[in-house]
Amino acid sequence: MRVYREKKTLGASERNEGQDFVDHRSQDNPQRLHAAIVDPDAIALFVNAFSKGVPDLPAMMRALKLSAYDGLEALRLVEKPVPEPKAGQVLIKVEAAAVNPSDLMFIRGRYGFTKPLPTVPGFEASGRVVAGNGRYPRWLVGRRVACGVQGGEDGTWAEYVLVDAKGCIPLLPRVSFEQGASLLVNPFTAWALLEQAERGRHRAVVQTAAASALGQMVLRLAVRAELPMIHIVRRAEQVEALRALGAAVVLDSSAPGFNKALARHCNDLAATLALDAVAGDTPARLLRAMPPKSKVVVYGALSEQEVKLSPGELIFRDQGVEGFWLSSYLGSLSLPGLLYRALQVQRALATDLQTKVRSRIPLEEAVAGIRDYQERMTSGKILLTP
Ligand SMILES: NC(=O)c1ccc[n+]([C@@H]2O[C@H](COP(=O)([O-])OP(=O)(O)OC[C@H]3O[C@@H](n4cnc5c(N)ncnc54)[C@H](OP(=O)(O)O)[C@@H]3O)[C@@H](O)[C@H]2O)c1
């Protein structure tokens, strides 16, 4: 089965968005890289920088400083010097910075790593490169980019951020800063998770937290690829919202009879892969409902609970659980491979990989805005606009 090779005919409105979404995910194939290089979108990426001037840099900038891993209580707006790029780095003037569940975990010290304090949180953003140190970093100066910050550097919740030039994705002219701010974390993860479904030749896939921004991306990609899915949400109102996006099977985990219904659908569809963002006892519930030899990929921990498993599923039903982290996935890609995937992802940013933004918030109002997002996550993302 070649799940993502099938290209469905696109509607006129989608074509107008410049969408031509054929999957090229699985290989760093030289022919495909060649195709990207002669592609008009790829050419646009090379030429779009030169008409843009680089502004004079101020000495100081505003940034949100985290002084303790105590969450929003420990976040303050401060003035600090604009940093200078070290070898291999670029300085980006931030236009929009995303707020994701990973940021909420990070500011409470519950993410996969911590940074020395004080630090500036924020893992992704979009903006314009205003300085670079090194050949490739200097080539990026003037360009509109999306960027991701890992490592020990300060993050994106600031007016300026330093990033490794290799962590920058030049934006197509038609991709706004607003769309670009959420280009890396969720779209790349949705793409990579479905890549796993394709590689494993799974006939059907289950996903939890399906009403999340990422879950909706996975849903739309799967609908386009005609990959059957079972979507799990935790509130009744989320069921209808996902049906409206084309989901055939949506189950509410808070409804009576959920476990039985899940097992029935998993068996009917032969769903042998589950994508889980909840953790706690959810992977075990999924495995019990799925056929022998099934696998759960845990990529999120929204419950903030340890994964609890009974050995029976693993031993007697030959099932498995593994993790997924975008940083490791991105680190496994070559720079041309990363840029090529970024081109494909950008083409789908206005459609399958779109992120609903509910508000844009200046740094001064960030704490209240993030609190509001935390309380109503399914209502859409907030963007920090320094
Ligand atoms: N591993 C990686 O590299 C990677 C990369 C990207 C994203 N992620 C993970 O992907 C997940 C989704 O991210 P996102 O940005 O798409 O989220 P989002 O749009 O902010 O939405 C979060 C969703 O999770 C639901 N939720 C919250 N707590 C839950 C719980 N305890 N049980 C079930 N559902 C819960 C919310 O539903 P309510 O409205 O009902 O609260 C909401 O629909 C997160 O866990 C994130 O960390 C992981």
Automatic annotation (TrEMBL):
Residues annotated as domain Enoyl reductase (ER): 71-384
Keywords (A to Z) from UniProt: NADP, Oxidoreductase
Region (Disordered): 1-25
Keyword NADP appears in the UniProt entry: yes
One Pfam family recorded for the sequence: ADH_N
Molecular function GO terms recorded: NADPH binding; oxidoreductase activity, acting on NAD(P)H
Domain of life: Bacteria
Protein known as: Enoyl reductase (ER) domain-containing protein
